[in-house]
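Figure S4 source data
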Amino acid sequence: MMKLTELLGIEYPIFCGAMGGVSRPELVGAVSEAGGMGILATAGSKPEQVRADIRQIRELTDKPFGANVAIMTGNADALIDVMLEEGIKFFTTGAGDPLPYFDKIHAARAKVFPVVPSARVAKKMEDNGADGVVVEGMEAGGHIGTATTMTLTRQAAAIVTTIPVIAAGGIADGHGIVAAYALGAAGVQVGTAFVASIEAPIHDNYKQALVDANDTATVVSGSKTRGPMRMTKNAATVKHVELDEDPSVDLDALEAYTIPSLVRAARDGDTTNEIVTFGQIAGLITEVRPVKEIIETMFAEANDVIESLAAFRR
């Protein structure tokens, strides 16, 4: 199997998670410029906004970047058309079945890495022509599945053998990267660590909420409407739980509250009354740093960890 970096033309095997209200052009461009794969979040965006975002990213970097399509938002066809018109060659998908879009993406000689919650779905994606899969454990922020990153990554890597498996959820330093490698992953997807970056185009209050958080700062809501999501404990969480427990509220209605609230929190910095998301690994994030420093530090630490593990062979 070709190395992930060679397959995608990137320096480091790291993706920036497509975080609503956070993975905007400034962050995407910074991650790609630093050698990773920046991924534009498009959930809730209209096609022409996505077109403008892509063009803005191209002003920030000439290195590879991609875009995420949230299938359930209802305008996936229109968004993918715009992305392909603008020359996007790398896609991730989530929140729905991506299989109907594979032919269109591959016809444009682009690659698609669906984000999946189980080894079974990862295998299904491989069997149907995906170029790779991102297996995301429940430690992640935002929308999640029910499997942990450790169990999910290992089981997916054991049965998905012809395409890269990318581990996501609970990875924020070099130790996490090495753990992902040990479980069989070809690379990692990171979200929380990039929230606390200088280039993340979000309010300082949002970043500070992450820096101040610990490993018990989040809670999962949305399971009853089949849209579980990890978020910080605040007034918005109380409302989210109430909506989730209301039998008259379906997933679409819950998302109609969730997505705009996420965007407002990131934009306006109200971390008390709006939804704020980050992963359980938040306790490792103690400062806001440049993206380039975050990536280089993570991989330097990963190399140190690998060298230190050599002692176990003796």
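Figure S5 source data
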Amino acid sequence: MLTIHHLGKSQSERILWLCEELGLDYELVHHVRDPVTGLAPPSLVALHPMGTAPVIEDGEIVLAESGAIMEYIIGKHGGGRLTHAPTHPDYAQYVFWWHYANGNFQPAMGRNMVMNRLNLPADNPIAARIRSRLLDAFTMMETRLGNTPFLAGESLTAADIMMVFSLTTMRYFFPFDLAPYPNVRAYLQRVAARPTYQRAMQKGDPGMKLLLD
């Protein structure tokens, strides 16, 4: 059985949601952030040198990094679910959005979070460029979700599971108004309606308000 080491308000929610979608049995271990720094506790450092969540244990395997964990679980336990085969007409979209989530979008959110905390002047050219790149990303996503219900086509895939954290829980760290993006907000409502997502979030972060609009 998989063991998922989870930290509240973190990318480890992806792993819980993935396992709920796949109907996998797992043991959930909660870790608590340091009350002063908000950082991960030493218990996660003891599991893996990265010292961050998520971490999974699968037999003798100990694995960190949410994207790597998702690929491992899908490859070993997914049975072809939540992915598109190379022959699928939306395969290229699946591959793109899967990698875009943590390769570009999540870093863009993180860079803007840092810029906000630096309180730079509104006309600072670096801050303006970083902000512009994020707005471009939202516009691209808004366009895509105006043409299809999920990022990789008609059905939810692991690409969506990768992306949703950045659109929701990440906004606790970097508030961002989704009002200009009705297609993104409608997409998040489709996600919110899934019992699998509801179960994952209740197990991982009970009582946390879900930022879905």
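Residues 91-193 form a domain with the Glutathione S-transferase Yfyf (Class Pi); Chain A, domain 2 fold (CATH 1.20.1050.10). The beta strands are 2-7, 26-31, 55-58, 61-64.
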